[in-house]
Amino acid sequence: MQNNVEKRPLDMKSVLILTLTPIAALIFIPYYAVTYGFSLADWLWFAFFMIATGLSITAGYHRLWSHRAYKAKAPLKIFFMLFGAAALQNSIIKWSSDHRKHHRHVDDKELDPYAATKGFWYSHFTWMLRELPRKVSKIENVNDLEKDKIVAFQHKYYVPLAIFMCVLLPMLIGATYGSIGGCLLLAGLLRLVLNHHFTFFINSLAHVWGKQKYSDENTARDNPILSLVTYGEGYHNYHHKYAGDYRNGVKWYDFDPSKWIIFSASRIGWAYDLKTTPKPVIEAARASMQLKHAQNKLKDKRYIKLVVDFEQRLETQYKLLFDSIKDWAKAKQACLQAKKDKLSSTQVIQLKERYKELKRKFKTERKVWRVMAYSSAKLAKSQNGRAA
């Protein structure tokens, strides 16, 4: 198979864009900085274009259109459509087609367009340098997007839109304050190169660097550091487990600007029908992975009886935690159903009290579980030290 990959013809459009833009940035930006200098306005427009294009890919191309994690009104869709074209990562339809295949066939060396299992550099950008097999490259499974007039418009006029947003718009903005070259080089060229590789990190680094907190079914990993340059996409293990969730950083303190933008847009009516994963489901997945990690750490130790006894206690506590999660989830569902059935206020209050009681029980069991999971790591480490 590898030989067939090597023989595939080069995609000259991608080769030229991905090689010439970084070279041009390395040559012209230092030259312009020394010869003319960049103004504060140049840097401010660079920051604006950087954030606008980055969020248009993450909150727009990715969460809105590829995964339908929420719905958006025309103003937000038009903004994401235009600045998504400025990111120069293909049209919404093509991008979403590739990404849906990635999720459907993640890590499959034959069908995943940018499978991390084929190597870091392949998943980062070299997959774009050669023409992909027809079964991988063809646009499919995007009938819903093709019916969207804004999306269809961008796909039809993608090239002129991309040229306008990447080149002409920065020049026009620069002309308003007498710095056509400065604005073009920073907001156009430098922004484009950085935006490319920050996005590519999600396909490469986010599949090799980080923790698997929710699933080990594929190579995706959570990495808060990556979220700093990917607008919240670094929580990639969670995303691959729950791709339909509009959040990637599920905790309130997780750095996820895309989540905050989507939520803020919903407050003013520009976004709606935000999809989230129920908290009990998330907690169950985390607990399952914590048990698996703990069991792996306790394997192959010399002090078998001590380890076996602890592992049995660990599994017992896991079952208690899992039962508390299920009871909590059932109580929550009962409360929601009571509102739909319009039960009496007394019955609703009783169900809410039951829900609160089971939530408190879950939190107690979770505390015990976390202490035991942490202790398992210390036990495994101490047994390693004794064995040595």
UniProtKB/TrEMBL annotation:
InterPro entries: Acyl-CoA_DS, FA_desaturase_dom. It comes from Cysteiniphilum litorale. The keyword Transmembrane applies. Belongs to the fatty acid desaturase type 2 family. GO terms for cellular component: membrane. It holds the Pfam family FA_desaturase. This is Acyl-CoA desaturase. The keyword Membrane applies. One of its GO terms (molecular function) is oxidoreductase activity, acting on paired donors, with oxidation of a pair of donors resulting in the reduction of molecular oxygen to two molecules of water. The chain crosses the membrane at residues 12-31, 43-62, 157-190. Residues 44-257 form the Fatty acid desaturase domain. Keywords: Fatty acid biosynthesis, Fatty acid metabolism, Iron, Lipid biosynthesis, Lipid metabolism, Membrane, Oxidoreductase, Transmembrane, Transmembrane helix. It is found in: Membrane.
